[in-house]
Fold:
Amino acid sequence: MNEKMTRKDFLSSLAFGGTALALFPWLNSCSPEKQKAAGGERARLGLIGTGSRGKFHLANLLQDPSAQIVALCDDFPLHLEEAAALCPSAKRYTDYHKLLEDKEVDGVIICTPLSMHAQMVIDSLAAGKHTFCEKAMAHTPEQLLAMIRAWKQSGRVLMIGQQRMFDPKYVKAMELVHGGGIGQVVGIRNYWYRNNDWRREVPAPQYERRINWRLYDEYSRGLMAELACHQLQNGSWAMGGIQPSFVTGTGSIQFWKDGREVFDNVAAIYQYANGVHMTFESIISNKHFGMGEQILGSEGTIDLVRGVIYSETGNRHSGIRQFLDQIAQGILSNSAFAGTSWVTEEASKDPGVRFVDNVTVNDGASTVGAAGDGSVELMHAYCLAVISGDQPAGIVEEAYWSTLLALLGDQATHLAGRVEIPSAEALGVSF
Ligand SMILES: NC(=O)c1ccc[n+]([C@@H]2O[C@H](COP(=O)([O-])OP(=O)(O)OC[C@H]3O[C@@H](n4cnc5c(N)ncnc54)[C@H](O)[C@@H]3O)[C@@H](O)[C@H]2O)c1
Structure:
């Protein structure tokens, strides 16, 4: 929210429409009714992990009329000081257990490295706190199950940082998919290319693993957890909550051979029971194609990142029409039954229609962290959930699946093989 934006502007920008609310129930968590019910109350929040993402949320929450930051925690002094400079009135802790004992904190926000999420979430819920944790949810599938059990037992709110669920261009796109706008979903493509070493500057060599935790297996699941986790959610949305049956994958360290343990390029293919595939590919030594997410349908294509819908029908020919075209083009003039039988497939020339206005669309660039990516709305919804104590529907389930798909995809890339994806029923998981 910029300084000129009034509270009324801010709240009206969060109002999602009727169809979206019916299809995506978590959006009710920031509806005007919820907002009204919260009155002028503020959620009293404690932030654990004041690094890059923690400070990003902090800066947004300081602008949110429903948030009050009462405590900050980080065991790395530099990061704690940086956050304290943004919010000097908040109490400071270096041990997160102490923050969890703080009676003034009603809701906790966890922005620590992946390997710490499970224990911190379980401890936070056990301390009776409503809890928000950044994606990915967990470092292992076993941790994921333990977190779901802890959440069910606690009766507290749990939310996970999958901000696309509140991003207007994704919400609109998925409304179009569910409204039949692209016909039957026949494929889902996700890719995320970069050209940098994914390293952060380290103040002294002994801090290498702490600062660059993403590069080491002990803390991270590399590109699958950090990047794919966001994009794999497109499958769940587009397929109406149906999940893939198995994943095959491959990966390697082929360019950034600098002591890192996680792959610098991966490719994974997820297959659904009806035969549809969802792909994810990431290479971090070539960024020519940037970041892309597309839902392919029998009647059209939706480019999620650019907020554009394309039609297939302009290029569609019936069998007979195609046959006549081929005769007209002389392709079949020598023999009706031999030689080239099909016109070479061409890419569509349809310029497409942009289906969202006034939202940030960075053509081909990463939209994560960009203004309007859903992060502000997600955190506002969390504040309202802390105030009401009402669990937003569907959030944990969506986050569970995107993390599980990312973790099993990571296993597949290491095996260079196939990993089965268990159903929730097989694991005894309910949401
Ligand atoms: N949703 C998104 O788009 C998005 C974007 C970026 C990061 N993230 C996620 O946010 C999380 C954090 O990422 P980041 O880039 O901010 O990492 P970071 O390294 O910048 O920050 C992590 C912080 O946690 C602190 N920390 C580590 N151990 C701690 C402990 N025991 N107690 C208290 N603090 C501790 C570190 O000192 C550091 O300040 C990751 O899970 C990442 O995937 C999500």
Q: What stands out?
A: The first strand starts at residue 43 and ends at 48.
